[in-house]
């Protein structure tokens, strides 16, 4: 143990002001705000610390590319994922006739998924806060008439989050409220993106430079999908957890998985966690769940007791339900003959079809180059082994027909439904990795809107060679999971109140994307950060005013 590092037993003996479970955008920003206000904060992180100085961390490339030999066994592969800030959880998709198991491409470690994100930090539209009116026929969706807070209420917290995260970019010309944001400018569009910008503008559309939490240092590669090896990516680890630890006295227990919460009828009493095969019972005045919209509801459902037979804070039976994940359809295009896109360059935003002809669809963003084939082959599963076996021939085909284009992400908003949900596993893990189950089916509303949206985008891109490189129908494509512990005014149809406190538990809060009552059509990071700052200010007054 390094000098000054907190031991697990020291953490167990203390009574903390706040225990924050998870260090992603919600937990990192909230914990930083409360630590800066003088509160005793303990971050509990399931993944490994990837903060500066941590040995063995994989940076500057995805682990499949940085350590190709790790694919020789599941154990070495999962170790590489963990050292790269990636999740090793196993999700069992029970949506179809046959269950499918996969490891999601999400973060686990300091910063959570924000440590891997493409740094898009964009405000939601003002109309996103009154979502039901945006859809002609929501069917049996539970999408509400309105969020319990408005854009105007969140706006000052958006501004604080933009400043903390160093967001730079251009205003969306289709949003009147964006003109007042006044972000610092981002660099000009890259050579990879400029031809598409000119094409879109020539069609009377309105591309703009996405707001990015990036410092754009010399040689910045934007590091989408992997940990940054420079000081340019602004995320929950660098801008939240790290200063909370080094400047404001917060503490961190990494590689510490929370198993359940012990509570009486009104308060969480203990956070039960596993740390290097030891079981801990941690205590705090306030407990904040920020473990992500997949894991947070599972923790609550696993916290069943005599007082809580259906799971903690689950009097509404909404915990784990209303799962949303966006419908992400990547399309690769070749805007210029002979030009090869080789870098990640998420720059372009296009919202001309966000609201279109009285219906709501989503956004389009440039993503960058398709990853090298080794990203697929250097895995220990049967697909990786099969691709490695025919690697020379397949690599030639892959390099000739699949690489060199610019990948666009077409992101359709999905609606919440009670039957789309996250559940605890039905049997224990055999290798120690966390397991959970999910059920997610497309409903008629999503099927129809996605088809119209994709048809319009393909029409816009008609002059270019194009190719789909993924499908929004695939549940393994978990882009922006949210909604599984929604907030609202009515305890019968929500888990949390408008301050993100559990309706039924006085000292329990949730600040990850679980709280979203609708997914909107945009990246969630900035809204999670802004809301975490809002909730931290409320907690500071409600629980620590004296």
TrEMBL record:
- Name the coenzymes or cofactors required: FAD
List the source organism. Mycobacterium alsense
* Glucose-methanol-choline oxidoreductase N-terminal domain segment(s): 100-327
Protein's UniProt name: Glucose-methanol-choline oxidoreductase
Note one Pfam family from the annotation. Answer: GMC_oxred_N
Q: Which residues form the Glucose-methanol-choline oxidoreductase C-terminal domain?
A: 431-532
UniProt keyword Chloroplast, yes or no: no
* Family, per entry: Belongs to the GMC oxidoreductase family.
Q: Please list the residue ranges annotated as the FAD-dependent oxidoreductase 2 FAD-binding domain.
A: 17-62
The answer to whether UniProt assigns keyword Oxidoreductase to this entry is yes
Q: Return the InterPro entries for the record.
A: FAD-dep_OxRdtase_2_FAD-bd, FAD/NAD-bd_sf, GMC_OxRdtase_N, GMC_OxRtase_C, P2Ox-like
Q: Name one GO molecular function term.
A: oxidoreductase activity
Q: Which UniProt keywords apply?
A: FAD, Flavoprotein, Oxidoreductase
């Amino acid at each position: 143990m390094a000098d000054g590092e907190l031991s697990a037993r020291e953490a167990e003996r203390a009574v903390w002001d706040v225990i924050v479970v998870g260090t992603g955008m919600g937990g990192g920003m909230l914990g930083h705000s409360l630590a800066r206000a003088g509160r005793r904060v303990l971050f509990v992180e399931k993944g490994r610390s990837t903060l500066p100085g941590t040995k063995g961390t994989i940076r500057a490339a995805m682990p499949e590319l940085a350590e190709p030999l790790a694919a020789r066994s599941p154990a070495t592969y999962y170790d590489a994922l963990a050292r790269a800030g990636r999740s090793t959880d196993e999700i069992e998709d029970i949506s179809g006739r046959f269950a499918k198991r996969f490891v999601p491409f999400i973060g686990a470690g300091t910063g959570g998924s924000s440590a891997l994100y493409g740094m898009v930090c964009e405000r939601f539209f003002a109309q996103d806060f009154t979502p039901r009116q945006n859809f002609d026929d929501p069917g049996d969706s539970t999408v509400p008439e309105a969020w319990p807070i408005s854009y105007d209420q969140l706006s000052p917290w958006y501004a604080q989050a933009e400043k903390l995260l160093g967001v730079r970019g251009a205003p969306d010309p289709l949003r009147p409220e964006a003109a007042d944001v006044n972000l610092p400018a981002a660099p000009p569009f890259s050579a990879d993106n400029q031809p598409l910008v000119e094409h879109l503008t020539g069609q009377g559309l309105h591309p703009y430079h996405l707001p990015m939490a990036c410092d754009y240092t010399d040689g910045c590669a934007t590091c989408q999908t992997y940990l940054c090896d420079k000081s340019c990516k602004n995320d929950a680890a660098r801008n939240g957890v790290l200063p909370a630890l080094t400047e404001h006295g917060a503490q961190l227990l990494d590689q510490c998985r929370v198993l359940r919460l012990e509570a009486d009828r009104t308060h969480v009493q203990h956070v039960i966690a596993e740390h290097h095969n030891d079981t801990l019972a941690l205590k705090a005045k306030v407990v904040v769940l920020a473990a992500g919209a997949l894991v947070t509801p599972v923790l609550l459902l696993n916290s069943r007791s005599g007082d809580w037979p259906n799971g903690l804070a689950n009097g509404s039976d909404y915990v784990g339900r209303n799962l949303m994940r966006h419908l992400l359809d990547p399309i690769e295009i070749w805007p210029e003959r002979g030009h090869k896109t080789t870098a990640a360059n998420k720059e372009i935003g296009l919202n001309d079809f966000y609201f279109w002809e009285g219906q709501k669809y989503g956004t389009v963003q440039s993503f960058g180059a398709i990853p090298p084939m080794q990203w697929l082959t250097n895995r220990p599963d049967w697909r990786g082994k099969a691709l490695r076996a025919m690697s020379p021939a397949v690599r030639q085909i892959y390099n000739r027909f699949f690489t060199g284009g610019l990948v666009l992400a077409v992101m359709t908003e999905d609606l919440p439904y009670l039957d789309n949900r996250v559940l605890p596993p039905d049997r224990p893990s055999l290798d120690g990795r966390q397991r959970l189950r999910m059920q997610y089916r497309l409903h008629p509303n999503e099927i129809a809107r996605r088809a119209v949206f994709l048809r319009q985008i393909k029409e816009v891109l008609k002059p270019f060679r194009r190719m789909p490189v993924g499908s929004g129908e695939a549940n393994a494509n978990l882009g922006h999971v949210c909604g599984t512990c929604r907030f609202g005014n009515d305890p019968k149809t929500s888990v949390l109140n408008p301050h993100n406190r559990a309706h039924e538990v006085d000292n329990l809060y949730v600040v990850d994307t679980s709280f979203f009552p609708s997914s909107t059509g945009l990246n969630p990071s900035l809204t999670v950060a802004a809301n975490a700052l809002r909730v931290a200010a409320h907690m500071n007054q409600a629980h620590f005013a004296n």
